[in-house]
Q: What sequence folds into this?
């Protein structure tokens, strides 16, 4: 999955390096790829992440960005690909905060195997830092999940980067981020 640097538009291409890599007549490696961009909204200034949001053992995609016609949007795409079939993603109707100039991250915050959704960036009402807890329904069967806003206690931010890592080897993840906060400017922190 890539975001084109010239336009900031989401471009989804699956590249198969394992089985369909070959060389052309000049000896240059050519990778087999499938462009799936037509299955996704035409968003600009995007942030995205991949993860198993509904606990069905395949990768789903969450995307947030700017639609020239509809404004800022956030969309979850569930992976509906049948084994051996063509890649298929389905848009859901979840009402999550939408951002641009920010981050969209799927993170297992409490090591329980369930992904939380972290959003930071510029939303409709200004800068945000919003976390959604994933409440798997019916054991997380295909498409059975619900997100509930979770108070993070972190200041709204934009133009940042977020990651989780166990820095002190206590078995619990630490939130590491860099960001731009209005009035403060650029900062980095560990929580």
A:
């Amino acid at each position: 999955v890539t975001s084109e640097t010239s336009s900031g538009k989401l471009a989804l291409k699956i590249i198969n390096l394992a089985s369909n890599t070959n060389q052309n007549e000049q000896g240059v490696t050519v990778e087999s790829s499938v462009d799936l961009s037509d299955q996704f909204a035409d968003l600009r200034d995007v942030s995205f992440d991949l993860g198993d949001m509904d606990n069905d053992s395949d990768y789903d995609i969450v995307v947030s960005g700017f639609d020239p016609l509809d404004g800022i949007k956030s969309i979850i795409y569930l992976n509906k690909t049948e084994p051996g079939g063509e890649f298929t993603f389905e848009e859901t109707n979840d009402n999550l905060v939408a951002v641009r100039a920010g981050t969209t991250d799927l993170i297992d915050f409490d090591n329980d195997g369930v992904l939380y959704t972290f959003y930071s960036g510029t939303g409709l009402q200004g800068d945000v830092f919003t976390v959604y807890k994933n409440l798997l329904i019916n054991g997380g069967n295909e498409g059975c999940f619900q997100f509930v806003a979770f108070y993070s206690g972190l200041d709204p931010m934009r133009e940042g980067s977020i990651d989780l890592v166990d820095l002190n080897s206590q078995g619990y993840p630490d939130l590491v981020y860099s960001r731009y906060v209005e009035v403060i400017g650029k900062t980095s922190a560990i929580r």
In short: The CA atoms of residues 118 and 188 lie 17 Å apart. The two ends are 29 Å apart (CA to CA). The mean pLDDT is 76.
